[in-house]
UniProtKB/TrEMBL annotation:
Keywords: Lyase, Menaquinone biosynthesis. Belongs to the MqnA/MqnD family. MqnA subfamily. It comes from Paenibacillus aquistagni. Pfam families: VitK2_biosynth. It is an enzyme of class 4 (lyase). It comes from the Bacteria. The keyword Lyase applies. This is Chorismate dehydratase.
């Protein structure tokens, strides 16, 4: 075995979680693991599985729900330029209402089982903005079944998008965009997913982590510069019109600067105040100065 092969063998594998939600596509679309000098393994997972695997240490980095970061914030650092955020409508975190909002707030709301961040955003808005306390039910994300059991239903991601399309074709429900409601009330951004990395891998592989972060940032910038390839991919994989997906991708923001951080900090303050999270959360932003 020559020196180079030995060095390859000694290299640590950096395991990156990949979720296939359209809202993180811009960061993954142009990312090529083979171009990294680090040994990289991409691990497909649904958000709940990725959150758990990151917590247990079987995945080293990835886009995790903001709430999952809050729960385990001591173990993670956050990349400063990567997130899934929006200011105003996000078009994929939707509360469907079969009665006026004032009645739904005192009735039953069915919650999707797929996202703690959105569930807790709804609970914060309901408790703090409307001073209401409805009964919540957890259900699989099937709108008609949810509506048979409750007065309102929270759906997120591609489930919300498809249900919204159906409702446009055959209007049955009022639809409330939670991100728009948050922004109207607080004036702040809402960040739904953050890009977290376990602190232990940062300490062991600082150079490789820097390179990987740069590659994801480059993918994000390419996606912003040329959204059309993502738009066509979404039409092919999920359906809908190119016009809809242009509007959707334009409404998302993948930065994580001071404005996005401030909105997320407020979300965590309310979550702590309402007992949805059991400790105060501080955003720990990764930078090379804080490594090693």
């Amino acid at each position: 075995m020559n020196h180079e092969q030995q060095h390859e063998q000694e290299k640590e594998t950096i395991r990156i979680g990949r979720i296939n939600y359209t809202n993180v596509w811009p960061m993954f679309y142009h990312f090529n693991p083979k171009l990294q000098t680090a040994r990289v393994e991409m691990i497909p997972a649904v958000p709940a599985t990725l959150n758990k695997a990151m917590k247990e240490g079987s995945i080293d980095m990835g886009p995790i729900s903001s709430f999952a970061y809050g729960v385990s914030s001591d173990s993670y650092a956050l990349f400063p330029d990567l997130s899934v955020s929006a200011k105003g409508k996000v078009n994929s975190i939707l509360l469907f209402l079969k009665k006026p909002l004032s009645e739904v707030l005192h009735g039953k709301i069915a919650l999707t089982t797929t996202s703690a961040t959105s569930i807790n955003l709804l609970k914060i808005i309901v408790a703090k903005r409307y001073q209401a306390s409805p009964e919540y039910l957890s259900m699989e994300p099937v709108l008609e079944q949810m509506m048979a059991a409750a007065d309102g239903a929270l759906l997120i991601g591609d489930h919300a998008i498809r249900a919204y399309w159906d409702n446009v074709q055959n209007p049955k429900y009022e639809v409330m965009d939670l991100c728009e409601s948050w922004h109207d009330w607080t004036g702040e951004w809402m960040t739904f997913a953050v890009w977290a990395v376990r602190k232990d891998i940062v300490e062991r592989c600082p150079v490789e982590i820097r390179e990987i972060v740069d590659a994801f940032e480059a993918s994000k910038q390419l996606s912003i510069a040329n959204p059309e390839s993502l738009v066509q991919e979404a039409v092919k994989q999920i359906g809908g019109t190119a016009q809809y997906w242009r509007y959707y991708f334009a409404g998302l923001n993948h930065d994580f600067g001071s404005a996005q951080q401030r909105g997320l900090q407020l979300y965590f303050e309310y979550a702590y105040e309402l007992g949805l999270i059991d400790h105060e959360v501080r955003l720990d932003i990764w930078s090379e100065n804080t490594v090693g």
